[in-house]
Amino acid sequence: MRVSLIGPSDIEFHYHELLGVGDDKLNSELERIAGVLVDSDVEVEFLPDKGVCLEIAKLYKKKNGKKVIGAVPKSDSTFGIDHLKQYIEEQVDGKRLVDEVIDSGDWFKHDMIKGLMGNAVLYLGSSPGTDGERHYAVYLYKLLNRFKEGIEVSKEKIHSEIRAGKDYSIIVYSPFLIGGKLSKEDEKYMEKFGVKLYYVNSSEGLGDVLKEFK
Question: Is the pLDDT of residue 129 over 90?
Answer without folding.
Answer: yes
